[in-house]
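---------- Forwarded message ----------

FYI, see the Probable alpha-L-glutamate ligase record below. Original note from H. follows.
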Amino acid sequence: MKIAVLSRNPNLYSTRRLVEAGRERGHEVRVIDTLRAYMNIASHKPSIHYKGEELEPFDAVIPRIGASITFYGAAVLRQFEMMGVFPLNESVAISRSRDKLRSLQLLSRKGVGLPVTGFAHSPDDIPDLISMVGGAPLVIKLLEGTQGIGVVMCETEKAAESVLEAFMGLKANIMVQEYIREAGGADIRCLVVGEKVIAAMKRQAKPGEFRSNLHRGGSASLIKITPEERMTAVRAAKVMGLNVAGVDILRSNHGPVVMEVNSSPGLEGIESTTGKDVAGLIIEYIEKNARPNQTRTRGKG
């Protein structure tokens, strides 16, 4: 099979592992810098050019699109889909999961457990917004933030009001969430591949920090997840339409709640913590499922 990996940096651990795993299994794998790919849109025969040449056809494409280039990356991936290439994750599903508010609304509609979340535009509504999520302490998140950046915990309602007023003054899109105290600064990252949780790890925030992201100094350890947590992770990925996803879950007093569904989950933390060949299982999924013109959306949406 010919597999393209859409990634800005071939030296990133996740990209490198996917290339290695694909080549070990006898496939031809090529890394394509997402921002150097460009498209002929108006043609009856859609094509993608790369660094001055037209790309030959691929059987499958693995999108590793960074949050900062979601719009352009999704356009490139959509062009691959229009050419009949099998995408590991579809462009529509990636765009859906990157919009934090939209993704929570979709999960809520399907009855997936979530923290109480509020969203407002006017500073006049701040007091009611705070009480809606159960008062302080609470968490304020920038909708565009990633890897824990743009996430603030407010211990008091006065602090929450000040932060919300500041963000709203900057015309930033923010949402407010209840703080799940019982999680104790820990979350569970479940890696879903093809409707199965293939690996899970617990991420614990460092002392004095509430964000458990490994990029922020959090530590990872093995964890045995419950059947309910497994089912929640699989359902969350399915609602987003993602074949491969990192689903972040908190253990709350009212069962597992989903914090986020990530369409390009990093492989380094989960592979080193669990010892599982996650990249190999992703390639295996492509081998079993990649067929021409299999995209449900065919570039629509």
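H. also flagged this: The two ends are 28 Å apart (CA to CA).
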